[in-house]
């Protein structure tokens, strides 16, 4: 299932959140070797203190985290403005209540059949279908995110529409800024890709509109 966690219900999902932070440590620190802070086996940054919304793909018992992502409104602090501003087109400011930033997208390769490609693609589709549903329910019109070429191919594979706005090469590789439009048509395309996998998609456990 998919669980939507925000300030109002975070106390109900404390251990699930901790498991998500442990997954983030394994992915971003151990595997990708990013310069991130890990304490007690969990990766957190200051944006986790800004009232973000998390989408967590978990089992029915809510003990395993197959994947997750984080959402923040662009009207407050974001990774884009603080660290990836050089991917913004010149003189462009993308901050509005209807635009949110997606970061810390990650999947647990070991739980997903040791990184089986089809399992990884399916899990990605689940998370982004859930993201589309939550966004549409909450009046969010666009999602911003920074990503590399591999993620760009994944987004297209699962049916997302991505408009590339800018790019930086200061990490020794291309890091893009993408704008993901939100619409029922795009959500339908992502869900159609999931149906092609001939599997039932997990349900969202918490479907309340997000608080801006």
Any descriptors?
212 residues; alpha+beta; 7-stranded mixed β-sheet; 32% helix
Order of helices and strands: EHEEEEHEHEHEEH
Cα distance spanning the termini: 24 Å
**Which ranges are low-confidence, i.e. pLDDT below 50, for 5 or more consecutive residues?**
none
Helix content: 25-40%
Strand order of the largest sheet: 1-4-5-6-7-9-8
Q: Structural class of the helices, strands and pairings?
A: alpha+beta
The fraction of residues in strands falls at: 15-25%
Number of helices: 5
Mean pLDDT: 91
Q: Count the strands?
A: 9
Overall geometry comes to globular
Question: Could you characterize the architecture of this molecule?
Answer:
The strands form 2 sheets. This protein has a 7-stranded mixed sheet, sandwiched between helices. A two-stranded antiparallel ribbon has the order 2-3. The relative contact order is 0.17. The protein has 212 residues and is of the alpha+beta class. Strand 8 and strand 9 form a beta hairpin. The model has no long low-confidence stretch (mean pLDDT 91). The protein contains 5 helices and 9 strands. The two termini are 24 Å apart.
SSE layout and pairing:
Layout: E1 2-5, H1 14-31, E2 38-39, E3 42-43, E4 53-58, E5 65-73, H2 79-83, E6 99-107, H3 117-138, E7 142-147, H4 149-157, E8 163-168, E9 175-181, H5 184-196
Parallel strand pairs: 6-7
Antiparallel strand pairs: 1-4, 2-3, 4-5, 5-6, 7-9, 8-9
Helix pairs in contact: 3-5
Describe what is shown at a glance.
With 212 residues, the protein is of the alpha+beta class. Helices cover 32% and strands 24% of the residues.
């Amino acid at each position: 299932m998919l669980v939507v966690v925000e300030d109002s219900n975070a106390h109900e999902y404390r251990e699930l959140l901790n498991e998500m932070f442990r997954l983030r440590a394994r992915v971003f620190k151990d595997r990708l070797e990013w310069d991130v802070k890990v304490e007690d086996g969990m990766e957190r940054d200051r944006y986790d203190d800004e009232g973000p919304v998390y989408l967590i793909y978990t089992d029915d018992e809510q003990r395993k985290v197959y994947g997750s992502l984080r959402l923040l409104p662009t009207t407050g602090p974001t990774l884009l403005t603080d660290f990836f501003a050089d991917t913004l087109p010149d003189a462009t400011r993308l901050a509005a209540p209807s635009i949110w930033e997606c970061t810390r997208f990650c999947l647990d390769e070991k739980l997903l059949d040791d990184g089986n490609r089809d399992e990884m693609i399916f899990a990605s589709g689940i998370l982004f279908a859930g993201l589309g549903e939550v966004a549409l329910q909450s009046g969010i019109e666009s999602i911003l995110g920074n990503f590399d070429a591999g993620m760009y191919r994944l987004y297209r594979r699962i049916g997302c529409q991505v408009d590339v706005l800018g790019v930086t090469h200061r990490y020794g590789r291309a890091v893009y800024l993408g704008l993901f439009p939100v619409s029922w048509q795009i959500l339908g395309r992502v869900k159609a890709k999931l149906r092609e996998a001939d599997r039932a998609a997990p349900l969202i456990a918490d479907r309340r509109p997000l608080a801006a």
